[in-house]
Amino acid sequence: MQEQAASRVLVCIQCGKCTGGCPESGRTPFNIRMLMRKRQFKYAIEEALPWYCTACNTCTLRCPRDVKPSEVVIEIRSSMVENGDIPVTIQKALESTFVQKNPWGKPRSKRGDWAEKLDFKVPHISETEHKRLLFSCCIHAYDPRCMVIPVNVATILNKAGYEFGILGEEECCCGNEIRRIGELGLFEELMEENKANFEEYGVKEIIALSPHCMNTMKNEYGDMGIKVMHYTEVLSNLIKEGALKTERPLKGGIIYHDPCFLGKQNKVFVEPRDILKSLNNVEVREFARSRETSLCCEGGGGRMFFDVEVPYQRNGEIRVADAQKAGADTIATACPFCLMNLEDPAKEKGLFVKDISEILMEVI
Amino acid sequence: MDIIVLTKRVPVTQEEELKIAPDGTSVDLSRVPFRMNDWDNYAVEEAVRLCEKQGGVITGVSIGDMESDEVLRRAIAMGAKDGCLIESQGVVNDPFTRALLLKGFIEKENLSFNMIFGGVQAEDDQFGVTCGILAAMLGLPFASMVIGIDEIQNDAIILRRELEGGIQERIKIKMPCVLSIQSGINEPRYVSIMGIRKASKVERKYFKADKYLDGGAGSLIDVIRWFYPPKKEGAVILQGELEDTCKQLLGILKEKGVLQ
Amino acid sequence: MSYTLIISEVRRGVFEERNLDSLGLAHMLKKPVYMLLPDGQYPVNERWSDVLIKTDIKEELFTAPKNICLLLDKVIERFSMPDVIILTHSSSGTECASYIAGYFKLPVITDVNGMDKDAKTFYKSYYSDKVYGEFAVPGQGPVVITVRSGAFRGSIEERTHASKEETIVGVFLDSDRAFIEFVEEEKTEIDITKAEFLVSVGRGVGNKDELPAYDELTGVLNATLSCSRPVVDKLWLPKARQVGQSGKTVRPKVYLAMGISGAFQHIAGMKDSECIIAVNKDPEAPIFQYAHYGIVGDMNKVRDKLKELLKG
Ligand SMILES: Cc1cc2nc3c(=O)[nH]c(=O)nc-3n(C[C@H](O)[C@H](O)[C@H](O)COP(=O)(O)OP(=O)(O)OC[C@H]3O[C@@H](n4cnc5c(N)ncnc54)[C@H](O)[C@@H]3O)c2cc1C
Ligand code: SF4
Ligand code: SF4
């Protein structure tokens, strides 16, 4: 793997297409083209640098030489992980994930607690007929702000008469961020544990609530013979089939922010928009930078746990300003990390940031 | 510089709601994860840093059931040469017994060392005395709350102990000695899963605890019951006009010892 | 003879307030109280103990574990073995307690915060204070105890008579451990993780111009200023002051959160503080779920009132 990476770096022609699309390069000390250069010549790399990357994948999608710069970043981080020398906040997240199977070090026994907020009982996956698993992200399970999302989606699915089950406290971190932080051994452990559960309970479909979980289970868990989807794909289908009706009208202008792991990395552009368009009375606006060129919220690649030393204008602020310019008062998104990163600057400007499931709950 | 580092596997309870059995005789830890005691992590790191500079070998020692092998693997992954597990039946609640076991083990197995390190206290029982009892029983000089090692001389070491209120005391202590290491003395390295897997290939040594007690004292203290501390339900909201609430606030600051 | 021995703690000439908890517990034990002091004059109430044992050992040497054992040898020789030996639960108190236990082969219980009414068993916290254990000492005493600060000072009862004074001199001290000096922790940069008392401000502060007054407040309170992320994002305070998931994890004795809502990412960095006090104008703010004490009100007004009270 190391050798592969080295040879990939060698074909880099320093064209700078990666830097051009990178949400971090140019605004922070980080520059992905220069990082590839340093790697080519085996120059020393300043220790904080590799941690700026948000793993949005834009560079890899744009690179004409298939260098996969974002993967090279993972390899650089991985050697830092093996040397044991990484930023403390990242270290804490990894150690917590090792012990509690979530980066916040919250008790595993409480992972399924969100389901207690429902007025019906969600069965354990083993008790379901169709073996459709609703898989929540660690942040859904523990951050009170995000906990509404699994509650909402479960309520909506239930309303549409769509059968599903959960793993409860057996669920563990999907490892998407862990892999991107470069802790490949831990990623493997998490993957094996989840896969063992999927196999034991004969899971046939996974409805992932976070694009990050969806991404890794779909693209990095190997062929499990399981259909992995994002919840917006399922819900948009249910709306199309008429199983789910959006009734009450909504006011105002909604703008949709494409999460990197849902949009550019997995090409789910249409379904979230279809859901929003199905709402009565709603005008769905678009960012100038949307779809493949959507501006990253800076929540991926371990950035939920790492802040750069010198503060700069966060992408979230830019995004909120752009939304305001586009005349929207609500930013809709479908990823918990985007939600968290956009909501803070939005609060300052008096805008709302909502997960699509939150918007749906208002209209059904 | 040969260093023995005492390490303990402890339950991670900070975020858990612990359940006590109705008869009060046990605390249910069956669903709680375990890991190396945080203070011991600093102790291992400090030992590794010293030996990286001075040469010498580190031996991790742990008392517990076979599961405690986990903390020895971690110590090895951090840089210890080997690990010894003193396998005990059940939990040893009394730190005196723990120290007695360690003394017996170190003497009977002829472990050579210049220093013995341990953490200041264990996260679970928060006793903070095992190292001190061990030192006294071995007749060795002892320092606790070690927050900095300034200099290693031929037969002595100059170090700083943490006292209260941002003050430290610098002392000189003869070797061999026993030190209990305070958290914050260093930044322990990250130990990766691959690192632990590699460490698993280093053989650990297993010993049976009953060999080392010499039929001597069992426990000098017994836990007779566990109970819940008075429960707090959300914040106590200070009532009254601005002046009253502020006065109450200052009173709390005084009571907590942060305001004179 | 049956008595309780207190090994008092003196630091840089100051008779530590923690000793009051040792005295409180000793009084609850209802036995004659002997209190051991290092060389020097201290403002000790003469009705606190029955016997004051003075020594000619300097404070720095008095608190060294081996020395205290050598001194105890003499105390025991003169007065017999005490039933209970009480120390403070502090850096040196616990250090000495452990060594005494090993040296004299005595049972030891640290951080004691309660006792049953018959004075037969002692309570001590376990698992970060989630559970208390009740400990019995099956053999015939003596037992070595360190007491939690604040736990027993309310139980002090003055004696009817002034204490007798005894003196022990000529203890042959240990040469294996030597005191060199006291050092103040180097404070090159502000390190909020080392502070015992943090005043932390959040977005509720409103605007940058309000901040200098918080600097003044922390000055008079002898506290350190920290903050939530939005305050850093606006460049009102440097990154090194940020508490939380992507900032620093702190566990001060007191965390005074002003105008901070209590977002998950912030709580992650301060939830283990010993005492959390929240000031927020919104009574529903999540921070109150984590706080021990709360004030519902305007943080800037609270700030000004505190300054006024402290100056007056
Ligand atoms: C990846 C990521 C990492 C993060 N890391 C951190 C981190 O490390 N640390 C951190 O702090 N945050 C972090 N956050 C941000 C976090 O989610 C919250 O947005 C932030 O903590 C909110 O800060 P606040 O409480 O100061 O502001 P707000 O949530 O806006 O709260 C302000 C509070 O002040 C009160 N208030 C307003 N005016 C007054 C007044 N005059 N008097 C009294 N009260 C008043 C309000 O009632 C409100 O409760 C992170 C977010 C993300 C997405
Ligand atoms: S886009 Fe590819 S080839 Fe161009 S500089 Fe970046 S890594 Fe090199
Ligand atoms: S993955 Fe995104 S943030 Fe990372 S280097 Fe590539 S473009 Fe930049």
Mean pLDDT of chain C: 92
In total, the number of strands of chain C is 17
Estimate what percentage of residues of chain B fall within beta strands: 25-35%
> What is the assigned CATH homologous superfamily of the largest domain in chain C?
HUPs
Query: Under the CATH scheme, which architecture of the largest domain in chain C would be assigned?
Result: 3-Layer(aba) Sandwich
CATH class of the largest domain in chain C: Alpha Beta
Strand content of chain C: 25-35%
Tally the structural domains of chain B: 1
The top-level CATH class of chain B is Alpha Beta
Hetero compounds: flavin-adenine dinucleotide, iron/sulfur cluster
Output the structural class of chain B. Answer: alpha/beta
How many helices of chain B? 6
> Roughly how many Å is the radius of gyration of chain B?
21 Å
Largest sheet of chain C: 9 strands, mixed
- What shape does the CA trace of chain B take? globular
Number of helical runs of chain C? 9
Short descriptors:
heterotrimer, B: alpha/beta, Rossmann fold, 9-stranded mixed sheet, two-stranded antiparallel ribbon, 15 strands, C: alpha/beta, 5-stranded parallel sheet, 9 helices, binds flavin-adenine dinucleotide
How is this fold's topology laid out?
The complex is a heterotrimer of chains A (364), B (260) and C (312).
Chain A: H1 2-10, H2 17-21, H3 32-40, H4 58-62, H5 69-83, H6 88-100, E1 132-135, H7 138-142, H8 144-159, H9 176-181, H10 184-200, E2 205-208, H11 211-219, E3 227-230, H12 231-241, E4 253-256, H13 270-277, E5 283-286, H14 315-325, E6 330-333, H15 336-349, E7 352-355, H16 356-363
Parallel strand pairs in A: 1-2, 2-3, 4-5, 4-6, 6-7
Chain B: E1 3-7, E2 9-11, E3 19-20, E4 27-28, E5 34-36, H1 38-54, E6 58-64, H2 69-78, E7 82-87, H3 95-108, E8 115-119, H4 130-138, E9 142-152, E10 156-162, E11 167-174, E12 177-181, H5 193-199, E13 205-208, E14 222-227, E15 236-237, H6 242-255
Helix pairs in contact in B: 2-5, 3-4
Chain C: E1 4-7, E2 10-11, E3 14-15, H1 19-28, E4 33-37, E5 51-55, H2 59-62, H3 65-79, E6 84-88, H4 91-104, E7 108-115, E8 121-126, E9 131-136, E10 143-147, E11 164-168, E12 177-184, E13 197-201, H5 211-221, E14 224-227, H6 229-233, E15 254-258, H7 264-267, E16 275-280, H8 287-290, E17 293-296, H9 299-311
Parallel strand pairs in C: 1-4, 1-6, 4-5, 5-11, 6-10, 7-10, 13-14, 13-15, 15-16, 16-17
Antiparallel strand pairs in C: 2-3, 7-8, 8-9
Helix pairs in contact in C: 3-4, 5-9
The complex binds flavin-adenine dinucleotide (FAD) and iron/sulfur cluster (2 copies).
Flavin-adenine dinucleotide sits between chains C (202-204, 228-230, 242-247, 259-261, 263, 265-266, 269, 279-282, 285, 298-300) and A (299, 304, 340-341, 344, 347).
